[in-house]
From TrEMBL, chain A:
SUPFAM superfamilies: P-loop containing nucleoside triphosphate hydrolases. It comes from Nocardioides flavus (ex Wang et al. 2016). GO terms for molecular function: ATP binding. Transmembrane segments: none annotated. Residues 5-239 form the ABC transporter domain. Gene3D superfamilies: P-loop containing nucleotide triphosphate hydrolases. CDD domains: ABC_MJ0796_LolCDE_FtsE. The lineage of its organism: Bacteria, Bacillati, Actinomycetota, Actinomycetes, Propionibacteriales. InterPro entries: AAA+_ATPase (IPR003593), ABC_transporter-like_ATP-bd (IPR003439), ABC_transporter-like_CS (IPR017871), ABC_transpr_LolD-like (IPR015854), MacB-like_ATP-bd (IPR017911), P-loop_NTPase (IPR027417). It holds the Pfam family ABC_tran. Keywords: ATP-binding, Nucleotide-binding, Transport. This is Macrolide ABC transporter ATP-binding protein.
UniProtKB/TrEMBL annotation, chain C:
It is a multi-pass membrane protein. This is ABC3 transporter permease C-terminal domain-containing protein. It comes from the Bacteria. It holds the Pfam family FtsX. The chain crosses the membrane at residues 269-293, 318-346, 366-388, 409-428, 440-468, 489-509, 749-775, 802-826, 846-871.
Length: 239, 205, 882
C-alpha cells in the first residue's frame, strides 16, 4: 500500500558551527492510509521538527519528504502551501484558531484559501463540523467556545475537503483527560475512515490510541511498536 | 486478599452458586484477573467456615440436578455484610508496595557493569506501550467504549486502571532514562569546560 | 514616587526590548517637538522686542520721544511692539516743543532730534526707495544705531553713510546720491542696527527730513525715564520708548483695553489653542496604537498584578509609565535636536528677513512648554490603553483568553451628541459670520466634531466588522481583527479621520475661496489679449519725459521681440504727469441718467478712450457693430448698464493744483453721444466708459496720447516673460499683463500641495502604524494561516486589507466630519464679496470633489498598495517552545 506520508532518510540541522543542532538524523518514516501513528519522545527529540517537515512548513537539510507521491522538494513555497490546503491538515496543541473568524469560517479557511466559493466552502465546513459534532456552534467565535470545542473546530479544519493526511501536534496537551480522549476518538475515527494520521505527543496514554508508536530520541527513531496485528488480551471480548 | 471481599460483595446482592459468582466477577473486571472455579469454591468454603456466608440450598438449579452438590447456592450473612461495608470503608493500604519485578530488575541492572540499561528500558517501554495500545483498543472498541450497564462501566474503569498503570510505568521508564543520561553526562570529569547549561537544559523538562 | 518605581522599571525595560515600537512612538512625539522648538528658536531669535529693540532704536539714549501733535494718548510699555492710540482730539498743527518735554523729563535733559523717513532716488533709469535716518551720528547718544565698516561718519551737512543693502544697489563710498534735488556724498558704509536687506541712508537731521511737517522725534539723555513720566508725556501727546520701562515693563492690563489689542491677543490665543489642540489630538492618535499594542503585550503582566492584589491604578501605572518614559525621552530628544536645527537654520532664515536677527535666543519657558506638550501627548496616548488594560477581565487573561470588555453603549451617544453640537456650533458660526467671532465658533466646533468622531469610531469599526461577513477572506479577517483590537485600531482610524477631516475642511474652504476669487475676478483686458502699459516715475524737481518717443521705442522692442504677435496702440485723452498739478477728464451724462441704468459700469481700460474703430478701443462682442457705426458717424460712444439711444453728454475737463481744494480751471464740451448697453454679466468689465472718435478730439483740440499697447496673438507665458523683460530694458515703469482669466496664485497651489502632501503623509503614517502593529500582533494568526495552507502572499494581502480598512473607514468618516467646518467656514470666508460687475456676490460654496475623491478612495487604496508591496511575504512558522 502506498504511504500517504513518506519521509526518506530525512535530516534537519538547525544553526551552524558551534550552535549546530541536529534535530533529525536520517529518519525514515511512513504513514499509511487508515493508520494513526504516534511519535513519542522527550523534549528536543525532534518530534515537532518531524511534523513541520511533514507539512512542508520547513525543508529537510537532506533526504526527501513525499506526500501522496509528490516530493515536496519539487514544489515551491506556493506549491507547498497548496499541498497544505488540499492534502494536509494540521491540528495544534493551542488549537490555533483565528480569533477573528467564526468556527465555520475557520474550518472553511483552507477551502477559501484554495479559491473555493464562499458558499461552497461554508457547506464543506458545516459538513466537517457535523462530523466532529459541533455543527450547532458554527457561527460562534473561538473565544466563545471551550477548549474542547475549539479543538474540535481545529480538527474539522484539518479534515475539511477530504484531506488524507492529518498532522497533530500534542492535540490534547491543553485539554483535560476526558476532553482529550474525545479528541483522540475523533482523530482515531478519521483514520479508521481512511486518512493517515501522525500525532506527536509525549504522553504514553495518548500515544496508545495509535496503531503504531514511533520512539524518537535525539533525532533518531529508536524503536517502534504495534507494527504487527495487536494481541488481544482476551479473545472473548473481540467485538 | 481482595478476591474474598469482592466475592462477598457480589453475594450481598443475592444468593448465587459458584459458576454464577465467577461470571459476575469477570463481567465486572473484564476477565483481567481470571478465576478458576476451584479457587471460587475454596474461597466460598472458607467464607462459610468464617460465618460470612451461608448455604441457602439447591434452589434455582433444577435443570442442572445431575451435577449434585455443585448446585449449592450461597448468601452473605449479617457478619458478611458488615465485612463488606468495612472493606468499602477502608482504603487499600499502600504501606507494603507490591513486589515489582521491573523495579527490581532495573535496580540490579544499574549496579552491574556491562549491562545495557538503556536497551532494557527501551525494550520494556515498547512492551508496555504495546500493552497500553491493547488496553486502549479494548477501551475504544469493546463494550467498554459505550458502557450501558453498570457492569460495562466497571469494566471500563478497570481498563482505565490498567491504562494508567501502564502509563505510569512508561513515565517512570522515561524518568529513569533521563536520570541515567544525566548521570552518564555528569560522570566523565574530562568535559569540565563544556557549557554547564546545555545538558541540564535538555533534561529539565 | 515609590509606587511608580516598579512601573517605570518595567516600562523602561519594555521600551528597550521592543525597539521598533519604541522608535515609532519616539518619532511620532519627537518630530512635532523638534519642529516646534526649532521654530520657537528661530522666531524668538528673529523677533526683536523689548530690551533687544531698545539698543536698536535708542542707540545710547535713555528714551526716544515721538510726537505728531498735541493731545492725550495711551501707549503700551513697548509702543513699537504693541502700539499706541490717541484718546481724544489731536491737534496736528501744534506739535510738542522741546521745552514741554523738558518740563516732564527735567530741565537738564538733553534732546537730540532724530528724523525717520523715506526717500527715493534714481540710479540710471531706475528709481528706488530707501529709508532715511537723520541724526547726528557723531553724538555719543547715537552710538549703536549704526556700525561703521568703511569710510567715516558724516561730519558736515551733505554727507551721509549707507548700509550694505544700499551698496548692493550699486552705490559705493565716495558716490553722490541725489535726493530730492540735493546732492549728498556717501562718506561711509556699515551696518544699520535694524535693516538687513532694505537700503538705509543716514545723515544729519537737516539733510534727512522725514517729510512730515508735524512729526518730531528726539533721542533723550535724561537718566532713566520712568513709566509715570511716560504717562505724563502720553498725556500731552508724546509716544515714549523708554529703556527703563522696556527693561522692567509695568502691568499693562489697563492700557491694553484702551489700546484695543486685547481682542487681537485673544484671536492669537484662540488660533494657537486650536493648532495645539489639533496637533495634540493628532500626535496622541498616532502614538496611541503603539501603546495599545504595548498594553496588550502586558495584558498578562497586568492580570498577574491584579491577581496578586494590585489595584487597577497600579496596573494602569505600568502602561502610563511607558508613556512617561517614551514621552520624556522623545520630548527631550526632540528639544535638543530642535534647538540645534533652529540654530543651524538661522543664517538661512536671515536671508529672507529684512531685519537683523537678535542674538541667538532659546526661549526656555516656551521650550519647557513644548517638552510638556510632548510628555502630555505621550501620556494621553497611553492613558486610554492603560485604562482599558486595567479593566480587563483578569480571569480570562490568565486563562489565556482575551480580556477585552465590550465597549460601553454610551460612547457613540456621547460622540453623536458632540458631533451634533459641532454641527450646531458650526452653523451658528457660519450664520454669525459677520462679527469675526464666527471663525472661533467654527474652530471650536471643528475640535468638538473631531472629538465626537473619535468616540464614534469604535462603533463604526464594529459595524464594518459585522458587515464584513461577505467580504473576501483577507478583508474579512482584517475588518474583524480591527474590530477585535479596537484599542489599537480606533486611534489609528481616528488619526486618519482627523487628518482627512482637516484636509477636507481646508480643501472646501480653499475651493470656496477660489471660486469666490474667480467669481469676483476683474479682468484687466479682453480674454487672451495682452497689455503693455507705462507710466514714468518722476521725482520731485524732475521734468516729465515726452511719452510718445518712449512709446515708439517700447512698441518697436515689442514688435522685434515677438514678431508673431499683433501690436496695436490704444489711445486716450492725455494725462499730465506733472507732480505739481494734473488735469482730469470726465464724460458726464444728463442727471436723470447718472444713476440706475446709466452709469455704474465697471471699466478696466482708460475712462475716456479715443478711437475710430471699436476694435481699436478693445471692444469685443455683440456691440461691436453698434460701436463701429457710431464712431464712423463721428459720434461719441458711452457704455451704460442698460440705457440706450442718443444722448447729449458733456466732457468736463478740470485742472487741479497740489493742495488745492477746488479745481483751478474747468471746461465743459458738449458731445453728441450714443449710449450702448454693456452686458457685464457675460462680457465682464467694459474696456472704457466712453469712446471719442478722433473727429471729436480734433474738433475740440483735445490732446490724445498712447495709453497702452494691446497685444493679440499667441501669448503664452514664455512670450509674456520675453515681452516683459524686453520692455523693462527700454525704460522704468512699464507693466506687462496678459489676461488669462482667473488664475490660481502660485502660492495657493503650493499651499494646497503642501496641505495635500502633509495630509497624505499623516494618513500614511496612521495607516502604516496601525497596519504594522496589527501585523506584528497577527503573527500567530498568520502562522496558522500558513499551516493551513495560505500562500506566502497572503501576508501581503492581509496587510493591504488592513490598510484598506483603516484608511477607508478613517477617510470616509473624516471626509464626512470635515464637511462640517469646511462648509461652515466657507461662509464667513466668501460672504459679502463684490462681483466683477459690482454686484454683491457670495457666499460661495465649492466642494473639491476631486480632492475628496482622491483622499477618500485613491489615497487609502494607494496606501494599501504601498503596504501590500512593502510587507514581507514570508509567513511565520507556528513556533512551539519545546
Amino acid at each position: 500500500m502506498n504511504a500517504v506520508l513518506h519521509l526518506a532518510s530525512v535530516s534537519r540541522v538547525h544553526g551552524e558551527g558551534a550552535t549546530e543542532v541536529h534535530a533529525l538524523r536520517s529518519v525514515t518514516f511512513r504513514a499509511h492510509p487508515g493508520e494513526l501513528v504516534a511519535v513519542m519522545g522527550p523534549s528536543g527529540s525532534g518530534k515537532s521538527t518531524l511534523l513541520t517537515l511533514a507539512g512542508g512548513l520547513d525543508a529537510p537539510t537532506s533526504g526527501s519528504v513525499w506526500i501522496e507521491g509528490t516530493d515536496l522538494a519539487t514544489l515551491d513555497n506556493a506549491g507547498r502551501a497548496r499541498m497544505r490546503r488540499t492534502s494536509v491538515g494540521y491540528v495544534f496543541q493551542d488549537f490555533n484558531l483565528i480569533p477573528a473568524l467564526t468556527a465555520a469560517e475557520n474550518v472553511a479557511l483552507p477551502r477559501e484559501l484554495d479559491g473555493e466559493k464562499g458558499r461552497i466552502a461554508r457547506r464543506l465546513a458545516l459538513t466537517a463540523l457535523e462530523e466532529v459534532g459541533i455543527v450547532d456552534l458554527a457561527d460562534r467565535f473561538p473565544d466563545e467556545m471551550s477548549g474542547g470545542q475549539q479543538q474540535r473546530v481545529a480538527i474539522a479544519r484539518a479534515i475539511v475537503g477530504e484531506r488524507r493526511l492529518i498532522l497533530a501536534d500534542e492535540p490534547t496537551g491543553a485539554l483535560d483527560t476526558d476532553t482529550g480522549e474525545e479528541i483522540l476518538r475523533l482523530l482515531r475515527a478519521r483514520c479508521d475512515a481512511g486518512a493517515a494520521g501522525v500525532m506527536v505527543t509525549h504522553e504514553a496514554r495518548h500515544a496508545a490510541w495509535a496503531d503504531r508508536v514511533v520512539f524518537l530520541r535525539d533525532g533518531v527513531v529508536v524503536d517502534e511498536t504495534g507494527a504487527d496485528e495487536p494481541e488481544i488480551l482476551l479473545a472473548g471480548d473481540r467485538a | 486478599m481482595s478476591i474474598r471481599q469482592a466475592m462477598l460483595a457480589i453475594l450481598e446482592q443475592g444468593p448465587m452458586y459458584g459458576y454464577q459468582l465467577r461470571a459476575e466477577f469477570e463481567q465486572r473486571t473484564g476477565e483481567t484477573w481470571p478465576l478458576n472455579i476451584g479457587q471460587v469454591y475454596t474461597t466460598l468454603t472458607r467464607l462459610e467456615r468464617d460465618g460470612l456466608v451461608e448455604v441457602v440450598g439447591h434452589g434455582g438449579a433444577d435443570d442442572q440436578a445431575d451435577q449434585g452438590e455443585r448446585h449449592v447456592s450461597y448468601r452473605a450473612t449479617e457478619a458478611g455484610r458488615s465485612e463488606v461495608s468495612e472493606w468499602f470503608a477502608t482504603p487499600v493500604p499502600r504501606s507494603q508496595p507490591p513486589r515489582d519485578e521491573l523495579a527490581i530488575k532495573l535496580a540490579i541492572a544499574v549496579t552491574i557493569p556491562g549491562v545495557d540499561v538503556a536497551t532494557i528500558i527501551q525494550r520494556q517501554r515498547s512492551a508496555t506501550m504495546a500493552s497500553l495500545q491493547d488496553y486502549t483498543r479494548l477501551k475504544r472498541t469493546g463494550r467498554a467504549a459505550t458502557p450501558e450497564e453498570p457492569a460495562d462501566l466497571a469494566w471500563s474503569l478497570v481498563l482505565d486502571a490498567l491504562v494508567f498503570d501502564a502509563e505510569a510505568e512508561v513515565r517512570w521508564l522515561d524518568h529513569c532514562e533521563a536520570r541515567l543520561r544525566r548521570a552518564a553526562l555528569d560522570r566523565p570529569p574530562v568535559r569540565r569546560d563544556a557549557p554547564a547549561a546545555a545538558p541540564s537544559e535538555e533534561i529539565v523538562r | 514616587m515609590r509606587g511608580w518605581r516598579p512601573a517605570l522599571r518595567i516600562a523602561w525595560r519594555d521600551a528597550l526590548r521592543h525597539r521598533g515600537r519604541s522608535i515609532l512612538v519616539l518619532v511620532m512625539i519627537s518630530l512635532p517637538v523638534l519642529a516646534v522648538s526649532a521654530a520657537a528658536v528661530v522666531i524668538k531669535t528673529a523677533e526683536v522686542s523689548g530690551v533687544e529693540r531698545a539698543d536698536r532704536v535708542l542707540g545710547a539714549a535713555d528714551a526716544r520721544v515721538r510726537t505728531e501733535g498735541r493731545g492725550a494718548l495711551v501707549q503700551a510699555p513697548d509702543p513699537l511692539e504693541s502700539g499706541w492710540t490717541p484718546v481724544g482730539e489731536v491737534d496736528l498743527d501744534a506739535p510738542l516743543t522741546e521745552d514741554e518735554l523738558r518740563a516732564v523729563l527735567g530741565q537738564d535733559a538733553r534732546l537730540v532730534p532724530i528724523e525717520d523717513g523715506s526717500a527715493a532716488t534714481r540710479l540710471d533709469d531706475r528709481v528706488f526707495d530707501f529709508s532715511t535716518i537723520g541724526v547726528d551720528l557723531s553724538d555719543p547718544i547715537a552710538e549703536g544705531l549704526f556700525e561703521l565698516e568703511a569710510g567715516r561718519l558724516p561730519d558736515a551737512p551733505g554727507e551721509v553713510v549707507v548700509n550694505g543693502a544700499m551698496l548692493d544697489k550699486g552705490f559705493a563710498v565716495g558716490d553722490e546720491l541725489d535726493v530730492a534735488g540735493t546732492a549728498l556724498r556717501i562718506v561711509g558704509a556699515g551696518r544699520d542696527a535694524t535693516a538687513y536687506d532694505y537700503p538705509v541712508v543716514l545723515g544729519s537731521s537737516q539733510d534727512m527730513r522725514s517729510g512730515a511737517v508735524n512729526l518730531r522725534e528726539w533721542l533723550v539723555d535724561a537718566g532713566p525715564v520712568s513709566w509715570s513720566q511716560v504717562r505724563e508725556l502720553n498725556a500731552i501727546g508724546a509716544v515714549v520708548v523708554s529703556r527703563a520701562v522696556l527693561a522692567d515693563p509695568p502691568d499693562d492690563a489697563s492700557m491694553s483695553e484702551q489700546l484695543g489689542y486685547g481682542t487681537g491677543q485673544e484671536e492669537t490665543y484662540a488660533v494657537a489653542a486650536l493648532i495645539i489642540v489639533m496637533a495634540l489630538i493628532e500626535v496622541v492618535l498616532l502614538a496611541g496604537p503603539a501603546f495599545a499594542v504595548g498594553a496588550r503585550r502586558h495584558a498578562r503582566t497586568l492580570a498577574l498584578i491584579a491577581a496578586s492584589g494590585g489595584t487597577p491604578a497600579q496596573a494602569r501605572r505600568v502602561i502610563i509609565a511607558s508613556g512617561v518614559v517614551l514621552g520624556l525621552v522623545a520630548s527631550v530628544a526632540g528639544l535638543v535636536l530642535g534647538v540645534l536645527a533652529g540654530w543651524a537654520a538661522l543664517p538661512f532664515v536671515q536671508r529672507f528677513n529684512g531685519e537683523w536677527f537678535g542674538p541667538f535666543e532659546a526661549p526656555w519657558p516656551y521650550l519647557a512648554a513644548i517638552v510638556v506638550f510632548g510628555l502630555v501627548s505621550a501620556l494621553l496616548a497611553s492613558v486610554v490603553p492603560a485604562w482599558l488594560a486595567s479593566r480587563q477581565d483578569v480571569v480570562a487573561v490568565l486563562a489565556g483568553r482575551r480580556g477585552d470588555r465590550r465597549p460601553r453603549a454610551s460612547t457613540p451617544v456621547v460622540g453623536l451628541v458632540l458631533l451634533g453640537i459641532g454641527v450646531a456650533a458650526s452653523a451658528y458660526g457660519a450664520v454669525t459670520a459677520g462679527g469675526g467671532s464666527g471663525a472661533f465658533w467654527i474652530a471650536g466646533a471643528a475640535i468638538l466634531s473631531v472629538l465626537g468622531m473619535i468616540l464614534v469610531v469604535p462603533v463604526v469599526v464594529s459595524t464594518v466588522a459585522r458587515l464584513a461577513g461577505r467580504l473576501p477572506l483577507t478583508a474579512r479577517y482584517a475588518a474583524r481583527d480591527a474590530a477585535r483590537h479596537r484599542a489599537r485600531t480606533v486611534p489609528a482610524v481616528a488619526a486618519v479621520a482627523a487628518t482627512v477631516a482637516g484636509v477636507v475642511a481646508l480643501g472646501i474652504a480653499n475651493a470656496s475661496d477660489e471660486e469666490s476669487n474667480e467669481a469676483t475676478y476683474w479682468p484687466q483686458a479682453p480674454m487672451g489679449t495682452g497689455v503693455v502699459s507705462w507710466g514714468p516715475n518722476v521725482l520731485p524737481g524732475e521734468e516729465a519725459p515726452d511719452p510718445e518717443p518712449v512709446w515708439s521705442s517700447i512698441e518697436q522692442v515689442v514688435r522685434e521681440t515677438v514678431p508673431g504677435v499683433e501690436v496695436e496702440r490704444t489711445h486716450g485723452l492725455a494725462e499730465s504727469y506733472d507732480p505739481n498739478g494734473w488735469t482730469s477728464q470726465q464724460v458726464v451724462l444728463p442727471p436723470d441718467l447718472e444713476d440706475g441704468e446709466g452709469w455704474g459700469l465697471s471699466v478696466y481700460g482708460p475712462s475716456v478712450a479715443v478711437s475710430d474703430t471699436a476694435a481699436g478701443a478693445g471692444v469685443v462682442g455683440d456691440v461691436l457693430g453698434d460701436v463701429d457705426r457710431a464712431l464712423a458717424a463721428g459720434r461719441t460712444v458711452v457704455f451704460t448698464l442698460a440705457a440706450e439711444g442718443d444722448v447729449e453728454a458733456s466732457l468736463v475737463e478740470e485742472t487741479w493744483r497740489e493742495g488745492s481744494e477746488q479745481a483751478v480751471d474747468r471746461r465743459v464740451h458738449r458731445l453728441d453721444a450714443v449710449m450702448v448697453p454693456w452686458d457685464q454679466a457675460t462680457s465682464g468689465p467694459a474696456p472704457a466708459s466712453t469712446i471719442l472718435p478722433t473727429a471729436v478730439t480734433d474738433e475740440l483740440g483735445l490732446e490724445v496720447m498712447t495709453r497702452d499697447l494691446r497685444l493679440t496673438g499667441d501669448l503664452d507665458e514664455a512670450t509674456e516673460t520675453r515681452v516683459d523683460e524686453a520692455v523693462r530694458g527700454v525704460t522704468d515703469g512699464t507693466y506687462t499683463y496678459v489676461e488669462r482669466g482667473y488664475e490660481r496664485p502660485d502660492e495657493a497651489v503650493v499651499v494646497l500641495l503642501v496641505l495635500g502632501a502633509l495630509g497624505g503623509l499623516l494618513m500614511l503614517g496612521g495607516t502604516l502604524t496601525a497596519t504594522f502593529l496589527a501585523l506584528s500582533d497577527a503573527r500567530p494568526d498568520l502562522a496558522t494561516l500558513s499551516a493551513v495552507g495560505a500562500a506566502p502572499r497572503t501576508r501581503r494581502r492581509v496587510a493591504a486589507s488592513y490598510a484598506v480598512v483603516v484608511g477607508l473607514v478613517g477617510s470616509v468618516l473624516g471626509a464626512a466630519v470635515g464637511f462640517i467646518p469646511g462648509v461652515a467656514i466657507s461662509r464667513p470666508l466668501t460672504a459679502a464679496q463684490m462681483g466683477p460687475s459690482g454686484e454683491e456676490a457670495g457666499p460661495f460654496l465649492a466642494v473639491p470633489w476631486l480632492l475628496v475623491a482622491v483622499i477618500v478612495v485613491a489615497l487609502p487604496l494607494l496606501t494599501a498598495a504601498v503596504v501590500g508591496l512593502t510587507a514581507r511575504s514570508r509567513l511565520p512558522l507556528v513556533a512551539r517552545l519545546d
